[in-house]
Amino acid sequence: VYNFSSGPATLPLTVLEKVQAELVDWGGSGMSVMEMSHRGDDFVGIAERAEATLRRILDVPDTYRVLFLQGGATAQFAMVPMNLMRGGSADFIDTGIWSQKAMTEAARYGRVRLAAGGPDYATRVPAAGSIEIDPAASYLHYTPNETIGGVEFPYIPDSGDVPLVADMSSTLLSRPLDVSRFGLIYAGAQKNVGPSGLTLVIVHEDLLGDPLPGTPTVFDYRVYAENASMYNTPPTFAWYVAGEVFAWIEAEGGLPAIGERNRRKAAKLYAALDGTEFYRTAVAQDSRSWMNVTFTLAETALDTEFLRGADAAGLKSLKGHRSVGGMRASLYNAMPEAGVDALVDYMKEFERIRG
Ligand code: PLP
């Protein structure tokens, strides 16, 4: 089947098969990775190789630390302000539900100021020139790809001297990225990285230390940086699978090749949507997500039939988020082009019969 779920999402089949082959006996150790001490040589090797591969494929500068955490991106909505909101206020760009969740949580720790976006920006990103940053802000937070709305920034905001913080949960590793533009990047793993339970944080070392008073030790980035993300027991199995996903990306030709494939996949689906009145997408041309393509049927009464037929044809999880309705096709890295072709064929056939 082709799984268009927004997450947890499809993993590359070759990765799943390798994990299956190694499940009960990793590398002749006689143990599953799940059973290994995180401080033993075998797991430390797995962990170090995963980080090294990620650094290679994403070209992470040496001045950045890569942290392998738990708690999902949602925990980062709190952990970011706990660690970085030292000046008492932070700026936000609001482009939808995930931006708003990050803002609501940050407001528990200090002042949340809107630098751009807002209720009118659920289907388009604000123009680069319209972002008004408070130079005294502790950081500027934005959501480069809004997973629910399917709205994606085609540019990286210029935040000047204010550190830029990005929730990249649904776009990290979808294409090459200039990490040096960011103060901190975070992502729940369960889209392009690996299984849920793992959260990646890539943070400039200058931002480590000095969290807000009362910040629990287990939420202090510096503690993870100083302990190779092993202050306590890390999500070992998810970390191992993520390492296999990073190796798969490298073997596929790295992020330039993955990015080109993702660009083609999205272009095919948007072309199909643009070519008819039967399907519609509300998202502005320059803000269309490569990863989460949202669309509706002109006749919403046909939604259920469309989804039922898709499911029967092996095209799974196309229902849009409950808050926006309609359809959403998530096209993460592990979705092959053949999956997009199958979806487009199904859409054309459905339109032929019911249009
Ligand atoms: N931010 C974005 C952009 C997301 O897409 C998601 C989940 O889909 C989250 C945050 C929440 O992530 P988690 O469930 O890992 O806490």
From TrEMBL:
PROSITE patterns xref list: AA_TRANSFER_CLASS_5
Record keywords: Amino-acid biosynthesis, Aminotransferase, Cytoplasm, Pyridoxal phosphate, Pyridoxine biosynthesis, Serine biosynthesis, Transferase
Binding residues annotated for pyridoxal 5'-phosphate, in chain numbering: 73-74, 98, 147, 167, 190, 232-233
A GO CC annotation given for this chain: cytoplasm
GO molecular function: O-phospho-L-serine:2-oxoglutarate aminotransferase activity; pyridoxal phosphate binding
Source superkingdom: Bacteria
Reaction(s) the record says it catalyses: O-phospho-L-serine + 2-oxoglutarate = 3-phosphooxypyruvate + L-glutamate; 4-(phosphooxy)-L-threonine + 2-oxoglutarate = (R)-3-hydroxy-2-oxo-4-phosphooxybutanoate + L-glutamate
A single GO BP: pyridoxine biosynthetic process
Enzyme class: transferase
InterPro entries: Aminotrans_V_dom, Aminotrans_V_PyrdxlP_BS, Pser_aminoTfrase, PyrdxlP-dep_Trfase, PyrdxlP-dep_Trfase_major, PyrdxlP-dep_Trfase_small
Pathway the protein takes part in: Cofactor biosynthesis; pyridoxine 5'-phosphate biosynthesis; pyridoxine 5'-phosphate from D-erythrose 4-phosphate: step 3/5; Amino-acid biosynthesis; L-serine biosynthesis; L-serine from 3-phospho-D-glycerate: step 2/3
SUPFAM superfamilies reported for this sequence: PLP-dependent transferases
Domain Aminotransferase class V positions: 1-343
Textual note on the cofactor: Binds 1 pyridoxal phosphate per subunit.
UniProt binding sites for L-glutamate: 6, 39
EC number: 2.6.1.52
Pfam family, one: Aminotran_5
Keyword hit for Mitochondrion: no
Compartment(s) of residence: Cytoplasm
Cofactors (names): pyridoxal 5'-phosphate
Residues annotated with N6-(pyridoxal phosphate)lysine modification: 191
Subunit structure: Homodimer.
Family affiliation: Belongs to the class-V pyridoxal-phosphate-dependent aminotransferase family. SerC subfamily.
Function of the molecule: Catalyzes the reversible conversion of 3-phosphohydroxypyruvate to phosphoserine and of 3-hydroxy-2-oxo-4-phosphonooxybutanoate to phosphohydroxythreonine.
The protein's name in its UniProt record: Phosphoserine aminotransferase
Organism in which the protein naturally occurs: Acidihalobacter aeolianus
